[in-house]
């Protein structure tokens, strides 16, 4: 179904399904004997959502036909990609807190378990923002697991196209304190103007010493919805209700690195292959010509 200005979802529908998909990737990366990342909550969270396709995926029980035309190294490459992405943003928070930051905001937190698994320094406050049903479900699963956050966790269930800054401040956010912001796996699901507004707002709420991290897909400006639909067609044939072509906002949008730079941030962009090399992982084969996204650049920036 096409996106609308006020569409909503849970973790098994629309954009919410993508949160479960990436958590399934983290669950698989966590099981990898090479010890790429450690997210012990990804597996129970994905099981709790209960989408059959993803439960089978983490159990290694997906129909082999699904991957019949995909090279094995490409499948492993997708798991490794989740691992390097997770590690990049884990390291980002570790470095921000080592520099003294004690306030973090995880935008579009989905099934991100960092508030429960990172070794936050004492006194750190972590705000998580996502759609109400997403926040409520995840909190319920953690409560059911008897898991305690490793920071002071505050949740805000709101759409990021609405007035989330007011809701964030009402939840105790301190704009005078340096903040480490994260927008992981979010931007392509926001309309171009909402992406700009997001970074405008982040900038206006950021005290000196703040940091922001995200990932940027330069090829998104040429995103072909039909290619996105095709990309997820085999999974749909295997029962997954996911059509990437209908979820991504298309058309021109700001270049994240340039946009943040113009707002006064000192920005570093790290190409995906470099992260693989840093982690000692084989770089996955080149994206084929049909890839609707293309390369990913991991972005971190500081405001001084
Ligand atoms: C690919 S998932 C990423 C989740 C999480 N950041 C991670 O990497 O595991 C996309 C997330 O963006 C959230 N999202 C997308 N658009 C949103 C919006 N307008 N308001 C609130 N959340 C949104 C979805 O609910 C979903 O959790």
What is the structure about, briefly put?
This protein is an alpha/beta fold and 304 residues long. Helices cover 42% and strands 13% of the residues. The protein has a single domain (84-303), classed as Vaccinia Virus protein VP39 (Rossmann fold).
* Total helical segments: 13
Strand order of the largest sheet: 3-2-1-4-5-7-6
Q: Percent of residues in beta strands? A: 5-15%
Gap between N and C termini: 43 Å
CATH topology: Rossmann fold
Secondary-structure-derived class: alpha/beta
User: Helix proportion of residues, in percent?
Assistant: 40-55%
Q: What does the average pLDDT come to?
A: 93
Low-confidence runs: none
Tally of strands: 7
Description of the structure:
The protein is an alpha/beta fold. Helix content is 42%, strand content 13%. The chain has 13 helices and 7 strands. The chain has a 7-stranded mixed beta sheet, sandwiched between helices. Strand 2 (125-130), helix 6 (132-145) and strand 3 (152-157) form a beta-alpha-beta unit. Helix 1 runs parallel beside helix 3 (52-58) and helix 1 (14-31) crosses helix 4. The termini are far apart. The relative contact order is 0.15. The structure holds S-adenosylmethionine. Residues 15-16, 18-19, 22-23, 108-112, 130-131, 134, 159-161, 184-186, 189 line the site of S-adenosylmethionine (SAM).
């Amino acid at each position: 179904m096409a996106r609308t200005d006020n569409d909503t979802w849970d973790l098994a529908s629309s954009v919410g399904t993508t949160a479960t998909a990436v958590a399934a990737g983290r669950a698989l990366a966590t099981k990898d004997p090479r010890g790429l990342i450690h997210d012990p909550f990804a597996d129970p969270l994905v099981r709790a959502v209960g989408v059959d396709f993803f439960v089978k995926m983490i159990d290694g029980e997906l129909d082999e036909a699904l991957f019949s035309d995909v090279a094995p190294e490409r499948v492993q490459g997708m798991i490794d990609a989740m691992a390097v992405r997770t590690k990049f943003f884990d390291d980002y928070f570790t470095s921000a807190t080592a520099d003294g930051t004690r306030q973090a905001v995880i935008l579009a937190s989905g099934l991100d378990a960092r508030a429960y698994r990172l070794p936050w320094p004492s006194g750190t406050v972590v705000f998580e923002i996502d759609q109400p049903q997403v926040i409520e479900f995840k909190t319920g699963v953690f409560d059911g697991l008897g898991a305690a956050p490793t920071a002071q966790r505050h949740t805000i269930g709101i759409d990021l196209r609405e007035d989330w800054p007011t809701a964030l401040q009402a939840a105790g956010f301190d704009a005078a304190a340096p903040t480490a912001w994260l927008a992981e796996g979010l931007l392509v699901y926001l309309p171009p103007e909402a992406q700009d507004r997001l970074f405008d707002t982040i900038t206006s709420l950021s005290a000196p010493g703040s940091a922001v991290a995200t990932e940027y897909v330069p090829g998104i400006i040429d995103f072909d919805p039909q290619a996105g639909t095709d990309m997820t067609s085999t999974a749909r044939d295997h029962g997954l209700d996911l059509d990437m072509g209908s979820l991504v906002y298309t058309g021109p949008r700001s270049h994240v690195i340039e946009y943040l730079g113009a707002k006064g941030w000192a920005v570093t962009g790290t190409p995906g292959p470099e992260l693989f090399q840093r982690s000692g992982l084989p770089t996955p084969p080149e994206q084929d010509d049909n890839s609707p996204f293309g390369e990913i650049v991991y972005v971190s920036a500081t405001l001084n």
